[in-house]
Design brief:
Blueprint: E1 11-13, H1 23-31, E2 36-39, H2 45-56, E3 63-68, H3 78-89, H4 110-113, H5 115-120, E4 124-128, H6 134-142, E5 146-151, H7 154-162, E6 167-171, E7 177-178, H8 193-203, E8 208-211, H9 217-225, E9 230-233, H10 235-238, H11 247-255, E10 261-264, E11 272-275, H12 278-283, H13 293-307, H14 330-343
Parallel strand pairs: 1-9, 2-3, 3-4, 4-5, 5-6, 6-8, 8-9
Antiparallel strand pairs: 7-11, 10-11
Helix pairs in contact: 1-2, 9-14
The structure holds flavin mononucleotide (FMN).
Flavin mononucleotide binds at residues 14-17, 20, 39, 41, 66, 128, 150, 171, 174-177, 211-214, 232-236, 317-319, 321.
């Protein structure tokens, strides 16, 4: 089982679903002394198996496979779907782009997605939006994997600890991408990363990995001082050569540093932080479908925008500190993070 203190650089590259965490990115991080992570949330079992086989040919280092615990949603009423489609239409959709009302199943079947995991046995398995079943936890442990789950507040962390998980990813408000809150509509404690890390490390007995707005070795030091065993960093890796982020995503991170990041439900139906663009502004206050139905509804528009390199109509997930993202190779970034951390003193 992987031991965080044995990492040359105490960094987990955050799982980033949607084609960003490619085998190239993941293996480069693992080969540079950290843990590389796949964001497999929306992927088929076949794609997951291929990615794990590819990464094994590129590294013997520790790899994390990350999944969403999707909520069960009943089909939204026709009226709600029509309203959400109308809101998207009012943005002025490109000619020829047809919106389609999403049909169930709205999310992949986790038990199918996990089949290649049991075969390839990555060192780490993590979950976002909730806790996997006891059966999944037991099977992962029987295969010597470590299991981590995201928490954004103490009550979630305590449930994670009781579930038998091995570590908690403490995700603060600054984090890019989806907030991992279990009940996002009713119960968000809105804690920043270091406050949350301090709280969880003082109240929980399993290791805490800190996530949200951590960009440099100095930031990693602050997370370690707050009680974390490692930092999970997403935005810091988005502009690496090996990242599969779209061209527009990288261009906005590097070139639109005056823009704010905002938490929005507009893309997926669930709160996620990204760089503000025309899509987010246009849908502000408009009706959206529940997660992940809204994600399926907006998919054709986001895919069109990615093909056209149009940053105004795709999700540009990024943390509040995206202005400090660096464009370099993973090995250079990991070396730099290690050096900056060393300059701050003891590990
Ligand atoms: C582009 C992007 C995609 C993300 N996708 C996932 C994901 O699939 N699963 C997950 O657990 N977290 C995901 N996250 C959240 C990260 O795990 C982590 O909490 C976040 O990156 C930390 O904040 P930072 O981006 O400021 O480093 C994503 C973050 C970003 C920026």
């Amino acid at each position: 089982m992987i031991d965080f203190s044995s990492l040359a650089v105490p960094v987990i590259q955050a799982p980033m679903a949607g084609g960003i965490s490619t085998p190239r990115l993941v293996s480069a991080v693992s080969n540079s002394g950290g843990i590389g992570s796949f964001g497999f949330a929306y992927d088929s079992a076949q794609k997951i198996g291929e990615s794990l086989a590819a990464v094994r040919a590129m590294t013997r280092g520790p790899v994390n496979a990350n999944f969403f615990i999707f909520p069960t949603v009943s089909p939204p009423k026709d009226g709600a779907v029509a309203q959400a489609m109308q809101a998207l239409d009012s943005l002025g959709l490109p000619q020829g782009l047809a919106l389609v009302a999403p049909q169930p199943p709205y999310a992949p079947d986790l038990s199918q997605q996990l089949l290649p995991i049991w075969e390839h046995r990555p060192a780490v398995l993590t979950f976002h939006f909730g806790i996997p079943s006891a059966g999944v936890m037991d099977r992962a442990h029987a295969l010597q994997m470590r299991v981590g789950v995201t928490a954004t507040q103490l009550s979630e962390a305590q449930m994670i600890e009781r579930s038998g998980a091995d570590f908690i990813v403490a995700q603060g408000l600054e984090a890019g991408g989806h907030r991992g809150t279990f009940e996002p509509d009713t119960n968000d404690a809105v804690l920043d990363t270091l406050t949350l890390t301090r709280l969880l490390s003082s109240r929980c007995s399993i290791p805490i990995v800190s996530a949200g707005g951590l960009m440099s070795g100095g930031d990693i030091r602050k997370a370690l001082d707050a009680g974390a065993v490692a930092a999970q960093m997403g935005t810091a890796f988005l502009c690496c050569e090996e990242s599969g982020a779209s061209t527009a995503h990288k261009e906005y991170i590097l070139g639109q540093r005056d823009r704010p990041t905002v938490l929005t439900r507009a893309f997926s139906g669930r709160l996620a932080r990204g760089i503000e663009n025309a899509f987010i502004r246009g849908l502000s206050g408009e009706p959206v479908l529940p997660f992940p139905v809204q994600n399926s509804l907006t998919a054709p528009l986001r895919q069109w925008a990615a093909r056209e390199n149009n940053g105004e109509f795709q999700s540009l997930w990024a943390g509040t500190a995206f202005g400090r993202a660096r464009q370099m190779s993973v090995s250079d970034l990991m070396r730099t993070l290690g050096e900056e951390l060393a300059q701050t003193g003891r590990r």
